[in-house]
Design a protein that fits this description.
The chain is built from three helices and 14 strands. It is α+β, with helices and mostly antiparallel strands. The strands form three sheets. It has a seven-stranded antiparallel β-sheet, covered by helices on one side.
């Protein structure tokens, strides 16, 4: 009888432990399912956010697919409503693990088709094309220009600043904006130069990559 009682106690304890395992397993499965649901929801939200900016990706892909063997491209984001495609056949090693360029064509979706809306050109390899949220930059030894794309899809000069020297070597500074040229201070000129220096360089790659 003593042994029988002990056996019954062991069976009861075993049943209790199995019950605990079952409950913990259901809790674990429930937690895992909740985590998966949250993760999936996050992915959908990210995709939806990206689509608001990159809903023209198929239009850009058609241009990329048609590029020649010696043409490189990059897709950039600025304050323009759609993504911007830059294409070049003139490039060089930036020294930072990617190809840079001082010359490129600009493609932008208009009426369901990515169209060539103009060109960007910097003055030498020391001044590669760059961009930030405010636009696209070209530069030279004594100038910086920032371009934007307006709501109609036109490539426009938003601002250009220039350093000019007279015959005596004295420097003056001007700004070109809205079709007008005005004199500015050296500090105002250097502020735009700094914006260019902080901007992200356009990283070009092969269409086949």
């Amino acid at each position: 009888n003593g042994r029988k009682g002990m056996n019954e106690m062991k069976k009861l304890e075993t049943i209790k432990e199995m019950g605990k395992i079952s409950v913990n397993k259901r809790k674990s499965e429930k937690t895992g399912n909740c985590f998966a649901a949250v993760l999936l929801l996050g992915m959908f939200l990210c995709m939806a956010s990206a689509c608001r900016k990159n809903d023209n990706i198929e239009e850009l892909k058609r241009v990329i697919a048609a590029l020649g063997d010696e043409e490189l491209f990059t897709v950039i984001e600025t304050k323009a409503e759609r993504s911007v495609l830059l294409v070049t056949d003139q490039f060089y090693d930036s020294g930072n693990g990617f190809q840079a360029s001082v010359f490129c064509d600009v493609y932008y979706p208009i009426n369901g088709e990515a169209q060539n809306i103009g060109r960007l050109e910097s003055m030498g390899t020391a001044y590669p094309i760059a961009y930030d949220k405010s636009g696209m930059y070209t530069a030279g030894g004594h100038e910086v220009r920032r371009y934007v794309i307006d709501k109609e899809g036109n490539l426009k000069l938003a601002e250009g600043v220039y350093e000019i020297f007279d015959n005596e070597g004295n420097a003056s500074y001007t700004r070109e904006k809205d079709g007008k040229t005005t004199e500015i201070t050296e500090e105002a000129y250097l502020s735009v130069v700094e914006d260019y220096q902080k901007a992200k360089l356009a990283e070009f790659k092969y269409g086949a990559s």
